[in-house]
Amino acid sequence: EVQLQASGGGLVQAGGSLRLSCLVSGLSLDDYAIGWFRQVPGKEREGVAAISSSDGSRLYVDSVKGRFTISSDNAKNTVYLQMKSLKPEDTAVYFCAAGPPYTAVASSGTFWPVEYDYWGQGTLVTVSS
Protein backbone atom coordinates (compact mmCIF):
# COMPACT_ATOMS: atom_id res chain seq x y z
CA GLU A 1 0.00 0.00 0.00
CA VAL A 2 1.34 3.39 -1.01
CA GLN A 3 1.26 6.03 1.69
CA LEU A 4 2.52 9.59 1.81
CA GLN A 5 2.49 11.37 5.15
CA ALA A 6 3.04 15.11 5.21
CA SER A 7 4.03 16.88 8.39
CA GLY A 8 5.73 20.01 9.67
CA GLY A 9 3.06 22.62 9.16
CA GLY A 10 2.23 25.23 11.73
CA LEU A 11 1.84 28.91 12.51
CA VAL A 12 4.73 31.22 11.70
CA GLN A 13 5.20 34.96 11.37
CA ALA A 14 5.92 36.55 8.02
CA GLY A 15 9.60 36.26 7.23
CA GLY A 16 9.92 33.05 9.20
CA SER A 17 10.78 29.51 8.13
CA LEU A 18 9.26 26.05 8.23
CA ARG A 19 10.34 22.67 6.95
CA LEU A 20 7.75 20.25 5.69
CA SER A 21 8.43 16.53 5.49
CA CYS A 22 6.80 13.89 3.31
CA LEU A 23 7.41 10.32 4.48
CA VAL A 24 6.80 7.88 1.64
CA SER A 25 6.13 4.15 1.88
CA GLY A 26 5.10 1.53 -0.64
CA LEU A 27 7.07 2.97 -3.56
CA SER A 28 10.62 3.90 -4.39
CA LEU A 29 11.72 7.51 -4.65
CA ASP A 30 13.96 6.34 -7.50
CA ASP A 31 10.86 5.58 -9.59
CA TYR A 32 8.62 8.54 -8.85
CA ALA A 33 8.70 12.29 -8.68
CA ILE A 34 7.45 13.78 -5.44
CA GLY A 35 5.62 17.05 -5.70
CA TRP A 36 4.43 19.54 -3.15
CA PHE A 37 1.13 21.24 -3.82
CA ARG A 38 -0.92 23.71 -1.83
CA GLN A 39 -4.54 24.69 -1.67
CA VAL A 40 -6.50 27.55 -0.19
CA PRO A 41 -10.24 27.06 0.41
CA GLY A 42 -12.20 28.06 -2.65
CA LYS A 43 -9.19 27.91 -4.95
CA GLU A 44 -7.67 25.21 -7.11
CA ARG A 45 -4.77 23.16 -5.87
CA GLU A 46 -1.50 24.52 -7.24
CA GLY A 47 1.93 23.05 -7.61
CA VAL A 48 4.78 24.43 -5.53
CA ALA A 49 7.85 22.27 -6.19
CA ALA A 50 8.80 18.82 -7.40
CA ILE A 51 11.83 16.57 -7.35
CA SER A 52 12.82 13.43 -9.21
CA SER A 53 15.61 11.39 -7.64
CA SER A 54 16.11 9.35 -10.82
CA ASP A 55 17.73 12.26 -12.67
CA GLY A 56 18.00 14.98 -10.04
CA SER A 57 15.36 17.17 -11.66
CA ARG A 58 13.84 19.86 -9.50
CA LEU A 59 11.39 22.55 -10.33
CA TYR A 60 9.77 25.44 -8.52
CA VAL A 61 6.90 27.68 -9.39
CA ASP A 62 7.89 31.31 -9.81
CA SER A 63 6.21 32.49 -6.62
CA VAL A 64 8.51 30.38 -4.42
CA LYS A 65 11.80 30.46 -6.35
CA GLY A 66 14.65 31.60 -4.16
CA ARG A 67 12.62 31.02 -0.98
CA PHE A 68 11.72 27.30 -1.03
CA THR A 69 14.06 24.36 -1.45
CA ILE A 70 12.98 20.80 -2.17
CA SER A 71 15.25 17.89 -1.29
CA SER A 72 15.07 14.17 -0.73
CA ASP A 73 16.69 11.65 1.57
CA ASN A 74 16.15 8.34 -0.18
CA ALA A 75 17.59 6.38 2.72
CA LYS A 76 14.78 7.76 4.86
CA ASN A 77 12.18 7.70 2.07
CA THR A 78 11.49 11.31 2.88
CA VAL A 79 11.17 14.45 0.79
CA TYR A 80 11.52 17.86 2.41
CA LEU A 81 10.31 21.32 1.54
CA GLN A 82 12.36 23.99 3.29
CA MET A 83 10.41 27.24 3.25
CA LYS A 84 12.08 30.54 4.10
CA SER A 85 11.01 34.19 3.96
CA LEU A 86 7.43 33.06 4.28
CA LYS A 87 4.67 35.44 3.25
CA PRO A 88 1.01 35.57 4.27
CA GLU A 89 0.11 34.47 0.74
CA ASP A 90 1.94 31.19 1.38
CA THR A 91 -0.82 30.27 3.84
CA ALA A 92 -2.45 27.07 2.61
CA VAL A 93 -2.83 23.38 3.20
CA TYR A 94 0.25 21.71 1.73
CA PHE A 95 0.08 18.25 0.19
CA CYS A 96 2.76 15.92 -1.09
CA ALA A 97 2.08 13.54 -3.95
CA ALA A 98 3.85 10.93 -6.08
CA GLY A 99 3.79 10.98 -9.86
CA PRO A 100 5.80 10.21 -13.00
CA PRO A 101 9.43 11.40 -12.96
CA TYR A 102 8.92 13.61 -16.03
CA THR A 103 6.59 15.88 -14.05
CA ALA A 104 9.64 17.26 -12.20
CA VAL A 105 11.19 18.40 -15.46
CA ALA A 106 10.21 22.02 -15.97
CA SER A 107 10.37 21.82 -19.77
CA SER A 108 7.82 18.99 -19.80
CA GLY A 109 5.05 21.36 -18.73
CA THR A 110 3.36 18.53 -16.84
CA PHE A 111 3.54 19.71 -13.24
CA TRP A 112 -0.20 19.45 -12.65
CA PRO A 113 -2.13 17.71 -9.87
CA VAL A 114 -3.88 15.50 -12.41
CA GLU A 115 -0.54 13.90 -13.32
CA TYR A 116 0.00 12.65 -9.77
CA ASP A 117 -1.23 9.22 -8.75
CA TYR A 118 -0.79 9.08 -5.00
CA TRP A 119 -1.56 11.75 -2.43
CA GLY A 120 -0.96 12.24 1.25
CA GLN A 121 -3.08 14.14 3.71
CA GLY A 122 -2.37 17.84 3.97
CA THR A 123 -0.52 19.84 6.56
CA LEU A 124 -1.64 23.38 7.31
CA VAL A 125 0.79 26.28 7.02
CA THR A 126 -0.38 29.60 8.39
CA VAL A 127 1.75 32.70 7.94
CA SER A 128 0.68 35.70 10.00
CA SER A 129 1.43 39.25 8.95
Roughly what is the average pLDDT, rounded to an integer? Answer: 96
Shape field: globular
- The rounded distance between the terminal residues' Cα atoms is 40 Å
Helix content: under 10%
Radius of gyration: 13 Å
- Most strands sheet: 7 strands, mixed
Q: Beta-strand level of the residues, as a percent range?
A: over 45%
Count of individual beta strands: 11
Structural class: mainly beta
Which regions contain 5 or more consecutive residues with pLDDT less than 50?
Answer: none
Return the string of H and E elements: EEEEEEEEEEE
Give the oligomeric state. single chain
Number of helices: 0
Structure in words:
The chain is mostly beta strands. It has no helices and eleven strands. It has strands spanning 3-7, 10-13, 18-25, 33-39, 46-52, 57-60, 68-73, 78-83, 92-99, 118-119, 123-128. Strands 2, 4, 5, 6, 9, 10 and 11 form a seven-stranded mixed sheet that branches. A four-stranded antiparallel sheet has the order 1-3-8-7, with no helix packed on it. A hairpin with a 4-residue loop joins strand 5 (46-52) and strand 6. The protein is globular. The mean pLDDT is 96.
Question: Could you list some keywords that capture this structure?
Answer:
129 residues, mainly beta, seven-stranded mixed β-sheet, four-stranded antiparallel β-sheet, 11 strands, 0% helix
How is the topology of this model organized?
Layout: E1 3-7, E2 10-13, E3 18-25, E4 33-39, E5 46-52, E6 57-60, E7 68-73, E8 78-83, E9 92-99, E10 118-119, E11 123-128
Parallel strand pairs: 2-11
Antiparallel strand pairs: 1-3, 3-8, 4-5, 4-9, 5-6, 7-8, 9-10, 9-11
